[in-house]
UniProtKB/TrEMBL annotation:
UniProt keyword annotation of Flavoprotein present: yes
Name of the protein this chain belongs to: Acyl-CoA dehydrogenase
Family of the protein in this entry: Belongs to the acyl-CoA dehydrogenase family.
InterPro entries xrefs: Acyl-CoA_DH_CS, Acyl-CoA_Oxase/DH_mid-dom, Acyl-CoA_Oxase/DH_mid-dom_sf, AcylCo_DH-like_C, AcylCo_DH/oxidase_C, AcylCoA_DH/ox_N, AcylCoA_DH/ox_N_sf, AcylCoA_DH/oxidase_NM_dom_sf
Name of one Pfam family that matches: Acyl-CoA_dh_N
Keywords: FAD, Flavoprotein, Oxidoreductase
GO MF annotations in UniProt: acyl-CoA dehydrogenase activity; flavin adenine dinucleotide binding
Amino acid sequence: MPLDADSFDLLLETVRRYVAERLRPLEARVADEDEVPDEVVREMRDMGLFGLSIPEEYGGLGLNMTEEIRVAFELGRTTPAFRSVFGTNVGIGSQGLVIAGSDAQRAQWLPRIASGEVITSFALTEPGAGSDSASVTTRAIRDGGSYRLSGAKRFITNADKASLFTVMARTGGPGAKGVSAFLVPADLPGLCVGRPERKMGQQGAHVCDVTFDDVPVPAANRLGEDGEGFRIAMQVLDRGRLHIAAVCTGIAERLVADSVAYAQARSQFGKPIADFQLIQAMIADSKTDAMAARSLVLDAAEQKDRGEPITLEAAAAKYFASEAVGRVADRAVQIFGGAGYVADYGIERLYRDVRLFRIYEGTSQIQQLVIARETLKRGG
Ligand code: COS
């Protein structure tokens, strides 16, 4: 049964309280230990967070896009590493299966993805194929009833925890049409996951290299038709970009709230710094950025729920929201002053965390390119 309005409101309220009371107090610990505690992962499983976007018939909550992004707004109000625990299962790790999987593939994997028993990863990026994702060189060569998969993937989120990868590999000639998508269980021989990278921020969320050395992948694990992999990846990313934009919006809103609280509590020249117009200007700009991001994201989500394409809208939402949260975080550091630069207040941590949003799931420059192409196609 789909969630009715009351049950959805209850879910939203539960997530809001969980973020405020349980996750926010753990932020510094997660950053220090570069790990989300196991008990938190268990609680997330129990709350159904791994299955937010998975259809109910496979054990998920079956949220539509608008509902999913309203949950993502709430999750954005804490360190992004928490969302990353189940982020791939909700987004890029599961949606290839939801969009293009056969009944048998969905029945085999989706219930365990929804419960969080299986963690998923999306393996598109390679050392030589970042923004130019149609140039992947990981190769899948048909060999009777299976494919032999060889190559290297880079910066793969949650790879160290994943038991299932959606891998984009070349089965044909050059370019997008030569790419197919595969469901690759992590325990196949020849699959090797590297050590988590050391990063600027988002400690607790891990990215690793994954290499494939003649990995035998059953032909039944191909997602969709031969040569459909790039299109599947782009559809997955359209959706993923919107979700990321919602997370950016949530963080921007949290930073506005933190900035306001600090500006009201901190006094200089005999009065709260919130009384000074130069501080107010920064608060006004950050509030406007957060409001505009929310509107763009909600608009795009509603459009998706009406069954319309959102390639342009998702790119615009991601472009604006990720750039906006960068500006908001920068102003938050400025409003906090010295306290914004030292670790104890957590503002410098969020400043570093949000930098990634302008890069992953498509850089700002790729979003600009997508927006421009679509606008030219539509004639305005
Ligand atoms: N939905 C459905 N199909 C899409 C699509 C989308 N959003 N975007 C592209 N396609 C299709 C195109 O229609 C085209 O098919 P036809 O040739 O049948 O018309 C095919 O895919 C190739 O598209 P295109 O010619 O636009 O490919 P490009 O090589 O020019 O690449 C960009 C397009 C740059 C937009 C793409 O490579 C991209 O998004 N790069 C960034 C990748 C990324 O986000 N990486 C982050 C890491 S993953 S977390």
